[in-house]
Design a protein that fits this description.
The protein has about 350 residues and is mainly alpha-helical. It has one domain. The protein is about 50% helix and about 5% strand. The chain is built from 13 helices and four strands. A four-stranded mixed sheet has the order 1-2-4-3. A hairpin with a 2-residue loop joins strand 3 and strand 4. Helix 11 runs parallel beside helix 13. The longest helix has about 35 residues. The chain is globular. The relative contact order is 0.16.
Length: about 350
């Protein structure tokens, strides 16, 4: 796939409480944030009725831990980019979603947090007595449409059972009946002939539920899908077993940044990165020279292996989707615009 097109905190439920505990710092070797009253914002910006305060030692440690974590992904990507080479797995998330590496590297505490001792922390922040915080009073109204759409998609997806019978055929449908020089990842060899790829695609109905995969199907492959997908019906079709729906959690986290914690964005990126590896291993491309042995979904054993990985990713996505949804709902509730 190439660059995608897509539409441009804490609440009081149990999931938000859990997220607050996890993101408060305990898992990063520092104390949990301490809530205490703060003076009003000097320039009348952020809603200061319910905030948590991170002391300087803790938030600086979290920010540094975040940078060290993501540098392991960003550093090799930037080195390859300078050398003019691209990796079909490791570089995909940067090109497909179009978010700059610097955006992933920048840590944010999320909404409703005061960074003690911080001044002029960046765009979207306002100084308050003793620190800085996100100006949610200004940010949330501008993001309301995005927050509402993303919350609706996340809630709808979470409310459906996962489907695990597509067997990764979307990548096959993207090269179906194309000559080798026209396939999407033309620099990577196919592990079988175009005729053999076509035979695999035609063996059983395509069961893709994700529009942003379906839209890259070849014209000959689209009628073979059980449903003719559209952007307008994405919310009605998305389901939690889909690799790409779970990979897209990184997209939604990035769209919500800086209103969600940097750790949550990184967690979603890590899941998406792992999903991309399986996505390409199950494709008709041969990436063994990159260290990715194929998952032969054209065989019964390969389909079993793929479905098992799919279920694992679906389980890993559950808490991330909950945290993102809780963030959206909390912000919308504060703005009086719950979807």
């Amino acid at each position: 796939m190439s660059v995608e097109e897509s539409p441009e905190l804490p609440s009081d439920d149990v999931f938000s409480l859990l997220a607050a505990l996890l993101e408060g710092g305990e898992m990063y070797g520092c104390d949990l944030a301490v809530a205490r009253p703060r003076a009003p914002c000097r320039n009348g910006g952020a809603n200061m009725t319910d905030v948590r305060v991170l002391d300087r030692r803790d938030w600086e440690a979290r920010a540094e831990a975040h940078r060290r974590r993501v540098d392991g992904w960003i550093g090799p990507h930037l080195s390859r980019r300078r050398a003019g080479v691209a990796h079909p797995v490791e570089d995909f998330l940067f090109s497909y979603y179009g978010y700059r590496p610097s955006r992933l590297r920048r840590w944010h505490p999320g909404a409703g947090v005061v960074l003690e001792g911080a001044r002029e922390f960046g765009t979207g922040y306002v100084d308050v007595d003793g620190g800085a915080t996100l100006d949610t009073a200004a940010l949330v109204p501008r993001r309301r449409e995005t927050l509402t759409w993303v919350a609706g998609l996340l809630a709808a997806t979470a409310g459906r059972p996962g489907q695990f019978g597509c067997f990764g055929m979307h990548e096959w449908a993207m090269v179906y009946r194309l000559p080798p020089e026209r396939v999407r990842h033309a620099t990577q060899p196919l592990r079988m002939s175009p005729e053999a790829v076509a035979a695999v695609v035609e063996e059983r109905p395509l069961r893709c539920s994700h529009f942003d995969a379906f839209r890259f199907f070849t014209p000959q492959a689209r009628p073979l899908n059980q449903a003719q997908l559209t952007r307008e019906h994405q919310v009605e079709r998305e389901q939690p077993g889909c690799l790409h729906a779970n990979m897209d959690l990184y997209k939604w986290a990035s769209k919500l940044s800086p209103l969600v914690p940097g750790e949550l964005v990184a967690d979603c990126f890590e899941l998406a990165r792992d999903i991309r590896a399986v996505d390409m291993r199950a494709s008709p491309y041969d990436l063994s020279h990159h260290g990715y042995p194929p998952i032969p979904v054209e065989t019964p054993a390969g389909r079993i292996e793929y479905a098992a990985a799919q279920r694992d990713f679906a389980e890993r996505a559950v808490p991330l989707r909950r945290r993102l949804l809780a963030a959206c709902e909390g912000l919308l509730a504060e703005a009086g615009a719950l979807y």
